[in-house]
What does this fold into?
Amino acid sequence: MTFETIVVETIQRTPDIKSIRFEKPQRFHYLAGQYVFITLGDGPDRITKHFTLSSSPTEGFLEITKRLTGHPFSNALAGLNLGDRVSIKGPYGAFTFQGEYDKVGMLSGGIGIAPLRSMIKYSVDQELNASIILFYSNSRESDIAFRDELEGMQRENPNIKVIETITRPGLDWKGVIGRINAEMVKKFMPDYIERTFYTSGPQKMVDAMVSLLREMGIPKEQIKQERFPGYD
Ligand SMILES: Cc1cc2nc3c(=O)[nH]c(=O)nc-3n(C[C@H](O)[C@H](O)[C@H](O)COP(=O)(O)OP(=O)(O)OC[C@H]3O[C@@H](n4cnc5c(N)ncnc54)[C@H](O)[C@@H]3O)c2cc1C
It folds into this structure.
């Protein structure tokens, strides 16, 4: 469906990632992990782009989470104020999770967290039995989006495990270091061969994660992928 809605909240997640929340029409339904088209502007200035809903269907608002690029559409989105109107069309996409797998592995970097945050929040809110292990790679500690929330869901739910890995650690970083690799996956997810994987984010990252999983012997049917163009 296509509808107009208004901005109800904006949240700066990291220095270059921002979430924007919109009023959710009662008749709009979607699955965790799906995306919508957001249109900004009028007449010839209208621009439409894809955005995953980082909110969960269990939440009372719609949220998208944008990596800020400094380009015109990104600036217009980042500049939205409470009450501003946008047009939304959707939902679309088959990169979804409704509890159909008991064991899930998630591999992501940067903005690729958006659909995975939706799925993890959905799983927690619906009290699903699925075991989810998320590997989330970022450059610096300050780049970890949804950090408090992800760590909170991990603390409160034995089914959720979050491994944050940093490639440019500061002196205080006590966690995992380096890009997601086979040794890391095997160490924190010994039953990896039994898991269904979700990987999302910039195209190069997703390509690298799919190659890694295939080299580790994960069949194609156990790998679900969503690529965000425009960031490589
Ligand atoms: C299914 C799907 C889901 C998505 N979900 C998300 C999401 O949840 N969050 C998110 O942030 N993004 C998401 N994206 C990507 C999003 O749709 C945009 O492509 C992305 O945000 C880049 O838009 P932009 O306006 O910031 O950059 P753009 O202006 O579109 O820039 C994209 C590319 O073009 C180049 N470029 C742009 N302008 C110029 C110029 N003047 N000169 C030279 N090069 C230029 C840039 O360097 C960059 O490489 C998703 C995409 C898909 C397909």
Notes: The mean pLDDT is 96.
